[in-house]
Amino acid sequence: MRKTFDAELHELGAEMIDMAAAAEDAIDLVTASLTSPDRRQARQALDLTRSMDQMERDIENRCLRLLLQQQPVARDLRTISAALKMVTDLERIGDQCANIAEISMLLAQNPTHSGDMSNIRTMSQKAGYMVKRAIFAYVNRDADAANEVVGLDDEVDELFLKEKSELVDLILNNREAADQAIDQIIIAKYLERISDHAVNIAQWAIYCVTGTLPTPA
């Protein structure tokens, strides 16, 4: 019985890794789509986020099956309950990527769009890494990796504030660039939210290791 249960837990971990990989791919696609002349990458990102909805349902079903059909001990309960919380954050990351993809498709209609995306690219890279690292921390019971993710959130927040400040200056000095600048601020805010969800995942990974959920900063 325990062997079967452990195999199910292993499959749960694999499904969480797959969903995190999908989230990371969606982040990469929407970021690339922002400087693409067509909408193909944005559409691919939307397709990927829709597949994440099914992944969420599959993971939730597996967790409930484990809770109802097996007799998990305290550590197992932490693993399963944390997965149920994490999968919600992963699904919301997919939602944020879908929102960016929608904006990207609107930007593709404007061939004169040429905003500086360097801060947004850096935010995207950090956010994607945070998602992957947070799930690594959960699967490998690595509290140090989880704490690394929590620390990176400050860097993403600083990049968001920098991007917002630069874009506000752009709006004040160039009214014609206002629409483009507002779109970029919204995109940056979505990426900041993605990093916040990654922090939530990392905190649940810490809970799996320690049995204590860190207090949000």
UniProtKB/TrEMBL annotation:
Q: What keywords is this UniProt entry annotated with? A: Cytoplasm, Phosphate transport, Transport
Q: Could you tell me the Gene Ontology terms of the biological process aspect for this record?
A: intracellular phosphate ion homeostasis; negative regulation of phosphate metabolic process; phosphate ion transport
Residue span(s) of domain PhoU: 18-103, 120-205
Please verify whether the record's keywords include Transport: yes
Q: Which domain of life is it from?
A: Bacteria
Q: Quick one: where is this thing mainly located?
A: cytoplasm
Cellular component GO terms, alphabetically?
A: cytoplasm
- Subcellular location per the Swiss-Prot or TrEMBL entry: Cytoplasm
Known InterPro entries for this protein? PhoU, PhoU-like_sf, PhoU_dom
Concerning its family, UniProt says: Belongs to the PhoU family.
Q: How does it assemble?
A: Homodimer.
The UniProt function text for this chain reads:
Plays a role in the regulation of phosphate uptake.
This chain belongs to the protein called Phosphate-specific transport system accessory protein PhoU
